[in-house]
Amino acid sequence: MTAEGRRYASVVGPARCPDDVAAIAHEVGRGLATAGFTVVTGGEGGAMEAASRGAREGGGAVLGVLPGTDRARANVHADVTVPTGIGHGRNLAVVASGDVVVAVGGEWGTLSEIALAGVLGRPVVTVAGWRLEHLGALPDGVH
Predict the structure, then answer these.
(1) pLDDT digits over 109-139, tens only?
(2) Measuring CA to CA, which residue among 98, 105, 124, 115 is closest to residue 37?
(3) Cα distance between residue 18 and residue 125, in whole Å
């Protein structure tokens, strides 16, 4: 838990995803919100939007960290948006904002977020996405 008593969970996943991955992201967002987490996403579509919608439906708050400078690109479920203007560099801001990172599905951007979370020492949970193996075992903090 953070010093201010709030818990944050970053949900990362592909901007373009099949319906089954979006459904999982939705349930992850809802479950996190129900458990009292503020949900942080990359703020745009696909798995990010599905997780945001789930979090809002679960009564939670959603922070969207956008890669560009145009707030209009944010999905409608983000309560607060942060336009960064730093493109893929925003992946670091997304994972650094969470106490835990949940990766749902995945493309290359999702893999970069998993790696950045590991570098920052954030615990990572992967769901229906990247399978990570390192010398026969997952790296510490990845579940």
Answers:
(1) 999 999 999 999 999 999 998 776 655 566 6
(2) 98
(3) 20
